[in-house]
Amino acid sequence: MQNNNISGLIIGQNTIYLDKVASTNDYLRELLSNFKPLAEGTAILAEDQFQGKGQRGSTWTSEAGKNLTTSILLKPHFISIEQQFALSATIAIAIVKWLRNKTNQPVHVKWPNDIYIGTKKIAGILIENKLKGSKIDASIIGIGLNINQLNFGDATTMTSLACITGKQDYIIKTLAIELFNQIQQEYLHLYTQGYQTQLDRYNDFLFWKGQEKQFLVSGVKKTGIIQGVEIDGKLQVSFDSNTQKFDIKEITHLIT
After folding, report:
1. Predicted structure pTM score
2. Would you tell me which CATH number, out of the four given (2.30.30, 3.40.50, 1.10.3470, 3.30.1380), belongs to the domain 212-253?
3. Largest Cα–Cα distance of the chain, in whole Å?
4. DSSP state for residue 81 in the 8-state scheme
5. pLDDT at 121 (0 to 100)
6. Integer distance in angstroms from the first to the last C-alpha of the chain?
7. N or C: which end of the chain has fewer CB within 10 A?
8. Where are the domains of the chain?
């Protein structure tokens, strides 16, 4: 670990509020590409994000003014490229802990970066890293968290904080501050305790871990048991005592 003091970091202390933006991740990346000096912990918080992005080209649709859509700049120089999944794990842990506190519900991480309450998705994470040599120079942490939205159309596997608690008047900016504080705690935990500790904690929160469930692999339905996720970010699933490793989009949870 490098001597890289981040003890004074305050995530969200510098927050840029936007009424409307295509993607908070794209907006923050554009600021960085214009060589604008931005402090670590800078956050973009949008009232309306109309072209939000998910993992590997998927989209994140959010009703204007109803949800928490944000991107945060971090500079995790203390972890290597090989350990970068630990950063994703750290953000997921923070959101899970925050939501468990808000809902008193069993919240889990559905590999690799979706947050579920029961069998419904409430949040998603998209991390885009800028690399420099063998280290991560900068990370843009994109988070979409459903708050006050009640109608998700045909998306029957979606939920929100309002749907779970019955409360419909959450103040997004107030919740954002709470979430930023939780992320800061976990980010400092990653810095002080290292990547293995965060990976272990991520696996403790893992959706379907140790349960016999149905998956889709190469177009074929298979029954398997999730064993966990390694530092390379790949999912380990056992099929008839044979453990296989999967990358993103190589396996699908068949949630009914």
Report:
1. 0.93
2. 2.30.30
3. 53
4. G
5. 97
6. 43
7. C
8. 15-204, 212-253
